[in-house]
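Researcher: Structure for this, please.
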Amino acid sequence: MPELAIIGGGLAGASVASYVREKDPNLGITLFTKDQYVAYSPRDIPFVLSGDIASFEDLMVHDFSYYKDKGIDLRLNTEITAIDLENKSIIVEGERLGYDQLVIATGVIPDIPQIPGIDKRGVFLIKGIGDGKKVKEAMKSAKNAVVAGADPVSLEIASAFLTSGINTTVVAPSPYLLPQYLDPDMTVIVQNKLESLGMKVITGSPLGSINGPGHAEFVTVGKEVMPADLVVMSPGAKPNVSLAKQAGIKIGETGGIQVDPSMRVTKSASVYAAGGCVEVIHHITARSTLSMLGGTAVQQAKVVAENICGGDATFDPVVNPVVSVIAGLQVGSVGLTSHAAKQAGLAPIEGKAQGLTRAHCYPGAKKIYVKLLFEEERLMGAQLISEEGVKERIDALSFVIKSGATYEQLRHIETCYAPPASSVVDVLTLALETFKK
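Model: Predicted structure, token format:
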């Protein structure tokens, strides 16, 4: 019987196994996953499609031998069909196995729309490496691709198609691209870049149908018809909570598993949950939210591992820092957008600026755009776009938001200057100077 059973082999589940093993060399650990791969993020797949990463196997944090060497029993292609909390057991392919402690890290599942023709050949939902390999093969003969979705992964996939010489269209049902991360005045920078490279972008209209005798040949969007022999559906994701729900574990208002700060589920002190299947608390609103980010999964795994090994760790509320690389643009966001702030009953005030990533006299300086959102004295959101220098600023602003620094404190922050690396006045300083209380 496994002393620790982990359901799910994504970043959360695999990280729990690794961190627990670091702390306890003797605990019996069994990791179950339905996938044939383990310890990778589907977020990395677009960069194999683009050729920036050589192979899908490179996405795995550890190869299979790592788990064997660490004494972790890795069960690939294995589905858990039920959890029995009362008897502290799980059903594995018809067999009942007991556990001392259990971690549910079942991740997310695609929120599949009901579109006529979605089952045709040439239509893909990228849930993991296996799907990514199929898309990579389909790219070899594809001439016209449609990507349905407005999130970062959709746009990274579309960019990969475009750079491979495939005519590419993005169809976004939302009124503008990246609505969870950017305000409309910032997302237009991304859309203009994509369109300048030859990509067609349709917003505010969902994909109507996928057509062809057996294989996709064309799609409809409203009254428009366009050729498409490769269609990728990226409709968004929702927490994969079916096992937890069947076991009677409480599901929160956002659809994720409800956990306490120690990452324990509400019905059992010996059962934890981590990763995209979990509901968390937002630092700014103090309300329940979802955080389907790799960084969140790993941080939660550290908390779970510490507590499994007798510690008393807690997981903090999130601000969800995100950076994507889309057609050469680094697109970053942290905290709330204007729309999300208003939905939470807050009144955002903005500071906005455009600057350069290096001294104006130094070769290679890139434009950088920044938008800061305040609620009175408190920074509650930031959005940045450039070809460089975004990630480190988003990381810094993530710390700023969580530290509670005020506008007056930010206004007096000192910044570095070196012509190859920065302007004498940083763009964040410029944005703060435009803020009017």
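Researcher: Any notable elements?
Model: The chain has a mean pLDDT of 95. The two ends are 61 Å apart (CA to CA).
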